[in-house]
Amino acid sequence: MSRKRVLAGVAATLTITLGLAACGSGGGIEGGGAEGGGGGGSAETVFRLAFNQTEEHPQYKAAMQMGEDLYEATDGRYGIEVYANELLGTQSDVVNNVSEGSVEMMLIGGPLMESFNPDFVVFNLPYMFASQEAQAAVFADTAATGELFASIEESKNITVVAGLFAGVRNVYNNERPVRTPEDLAGLRLRVQQSDSQVAMIEAMGGVASPMGQGEVYTALQSGVLEGAENNETVYNSLKHDEVAKYYSYTEHLMIPDYLLMNTDVLAQMSEEDRAAFTELVPALVEDANTGFFEFIETSRAASEENGAEFNEDVDVEAFRQRVAPLVEESIDNDVKQGLYDAVQQYNEQYPAES
């Protein structure tokens, strides 16, 4: 699987649902500034955007820039405040607030979307995308993803504004380097709170422990966990490299993040302001996606300075074979099959770098 810098033209992906209902009640928007960081805090209406990573993350920076640009594009009518570090709560809690409208926007990990529509699982399956370029192309194809991204507007009042690259996830632990599935035996690894992620780690040979991100460091430090799985940026920024020194490139997941927005809030904007908002989304996606590759490089270097060992001598094919039955059994309806077929189309067009 390629970890090279993505072509900027492909990275600027966007899927936006424009078929919104007429303005509804709710939304919970309040004017004035807010404490929390981000751009556009002095706007007449400020959208709160919840984020579970640090201010150094490229998605935070891209969202903050979007807030400033939105303020200018709407002549001060709208802005965005970005709340990092789970300041507004965990993702599983905040997504309910977005649904209700008490928080207008958030960035969320792909697995949590499965609880709203199980069809999202396709993009969360192991070894689904051959390359980041393939993933970006899928999200740029509204014919492939438009209905999926609109699928929770009626049930949850949430619009999926965009899909973003969130790195390639690998395993790390405090016991040993991992080269084969046998090396995971007995290791308790944190996974996201998703049935598919639990099944994946079990198939790969480890012991899955679903847990919120904020609990992982203490669990590793205390011995409740031996390891976890995530990309290099989280590994470094949340200081997991202090308590789990062995990072191994199993390259098992390329799960996207999604930018969500309360559907009523978006619909309540004037046509002019909503157009200004949607026109800014491609720049947000491009900034976040291209910035992620630089963030990976600096994160790995920082972790190596902290004494972490990065192991690229991994039998990726052995892990791929272990999880192949999980992928096959997860594609269990026509919608999932269509999404899977779209991914395979772009995997052929953008194969992994050899």
TrEMBL record:
It holds the Pfam family DctP. GO terms for molecular function: carbohydrate binding. One of its GO terms (biological process) is transmembrane transport. Keywords: Receptor, Signal. The keyword Signal applies. Residues 1-21 form the signal peptide. InterPro entries: DctP_fam (IPR018389), TRAP_DctP_sf (IPR038404). The keyword Signal applies. PANTHER family: DICARBOXYLATE-BINDING PERIPLASMIC PROTEIN, PTHR33376. This is Tripartite ATP-independent transporter solute receptor, DctP family. It comes from Auraticoccus monumenti.
